[in-house]
Amino acid sequence: MVFAIVIFLLVGVLSVVNAQVKIVGEGITIEKAQYNTIEYIDGSKDKLYQNTDNGGVELVYVPKATLILNEKEYKQFVKDINKASKRKDIEIVREKYTINSYTWSDDSVYFSDNKTLSVGEIFLVDIEKIK
Q: Is 13 helix (H, G, I), strand (E, B) or coil?
């Protein structure tokens, strides 16, 4: 009886752990669960710097934004990011987001939330992580 309870608890814990995966890249964090939450540095807003007592400057605020996608939208997002990373000067417009790739940027792909107009950046080295 005790053995059955331990097995049941272990299976329950493993299913919860597997249900949520956290992917961390440079300037972007993706939490994969029932709804996929993409948290990123908002490039459309300025970072806030402050002078220090010793004459230097320190970063005190980095604007963040969040894009929430269901599983179907997230899979399409990943396909769109991969497509944009292979081509130059491409714009892919979807209901919740827009993805852009530019010839002047050879190390990243940009995306924007169509509702909030916040802008995110995914570096090419991080694209393999989000699949």
A: helix
Summarize the confidence of residues 95-114 as an average pLDDT: 93
Residue by residue, what is the 3-state secondary structure of 58-95? EEEECCEEEEEECHHHHHHHHHHHHHHHHCCCEEEECC
Q: 3-state SS string over 92-125?
A: EECCCEEEEECCCCCCEEEEEECCCCCEEEEEHH
- 27, 39 Cβ separation under 8 angstroms: no
- pLDDT at residue 126 above 50? yes
pLDDT tens digits along 5-31: 434 444 444 444 444 577 777 777 888
Question: What pTM was computed for the model?
Answer: 0.74
Pairing of strands 97-101, 57-61: unpaired
d(CA 117, CA 41): 13
